[in-house]
Task: inverse folding
């Protein structure tokens, strides 16, 4: 089972789309040009988006 | 698209008239945001962003460190937008002065908001002075943002420019406004 999931700070997201391009599972989309949204069903918490987000607002968090 | 963008900067080096194509990077994203209500330009087509990705990821010119938090703060982003817009408006003002024959054409490209770099070799054809002035001004803005963007790419991550990009900020604002309706 997956132990992590991606979460982001929507208030600081600049909707640049780098995470969308990086995500190997296509789990992230940009919601109407406002911020990135992670699809929790698809995300496996690999952490690639956390490493590439230029604003540094993507976080790999442990599933409670 | 990054090839298109790179070609643009090379062409502007030889013939400044090509700088006019830079307006595409201003008009299309705004139109897409106003009509479509999304940032598909930033997300998929922005050639400048792709140059940073190629430099940072493919060629490895990037430390890969996250940008400091203040860079993505609303205050800095909006401040930078105002700062950039003031130069854009100044550029249009100078163009109007040249068009009215109040000022003569200066064949320089203003880089990093301070240095006027001579660029006279890129003016081989005779066009109306105001058209040339606008081209020199616009090319200066475009080149400045690429230089700053490359520096940010090297120090932080590729496309750190996007965090404070005035165009991205504007289109995001439009999208957020549209979403409130």
Result:
């Amino acid at each position: 089972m997956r132990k992590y999931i991606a979460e982001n700070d929507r208030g600081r997201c600049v909707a640049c789309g780098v995470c969308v391009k990086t995500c190997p599972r296509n789990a992230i989309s940009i919601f109407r040009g406002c911020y990135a949204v992670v699809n929790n069903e698809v995300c496996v918490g690999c952490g690639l988006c956390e490493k590439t987000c230029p604003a540094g607002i993507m976080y790999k968090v442990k599933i409670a | 698209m990054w090839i298109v963008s790179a070609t643009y900067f090379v062409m502007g080096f030889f013939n400044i008239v090509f700088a006019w194509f830079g307006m595409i990077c201003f008009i299309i994203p705004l139109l897409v945001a106003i009509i479509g209500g999304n940032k598909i330009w930033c997300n998929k087509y922005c050639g400048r962003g792709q140059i940073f990705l190629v430099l940072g990821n493919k060629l490895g010119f990037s430390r890969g460190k996250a940008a400091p938090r203040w860079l993505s703060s609303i205050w800095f982003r909006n401040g930078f937008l105002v700062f950039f817009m003031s130069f854009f408006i100044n550029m249009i003002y100078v163009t109007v002065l040249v068009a009215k024959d109040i000022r003569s054409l200066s064949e320089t490209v203003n880089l990093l908001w301070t240095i006027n770099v001579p660029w006279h070799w890129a003016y081989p054809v005779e066009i109306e002075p105001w058209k040339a002035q606008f081209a020199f001004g616009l090319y200066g803005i475009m080149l400045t943002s690429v230089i700053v963007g490359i520096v940010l790419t090297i120090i932080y991550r590729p496309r750190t420019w996007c965090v404070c990009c005035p165009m991205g900020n504007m289109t995001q604002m439009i999208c957020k406004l549209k979403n409130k309706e």
Chain B has a mean pLDDT of 79. Chain B touches chain A through 36 residues (CB under 8 Å). The two ends of chain B are 33 Å apart (CA to CA).
